[in-house]
Design brief:
This protein has 77 residues and is mainly alpha-helical. The protein has one domain (2-74). The chain is built from five helices and no strands. The protein has helices at 2-11, 15-20, 40-44, 55-60, 63-74. It binds zinc ion (ZN).
Amino acid sequence: MADATFYYTGTRRCKVSLKKWGFLKDDDVNCVCGTEPQTMEHLLRCPLLEQTCNPEGLAEYNDVAKECVQLWQKHSI
Ligand SMILES: [Zn+2]
């Protein structure tokens, strides 16, 4: 699962970044939870997560980070 960490921390695959880089065709950068634009910061504290994550946890890929990544995958984020 180390690939997942690289995937999310290395590429910062959030809609706001995708939009900035021109990879997102539509103008909807809101997260699937519908509360905020989907920035990387938002992904770590998205209300869909059972526990909020932080960049340190993601770097270590601890248990909380694993749950976040699983939820992102479940919601196709
Ligand atoms: Zn969200």
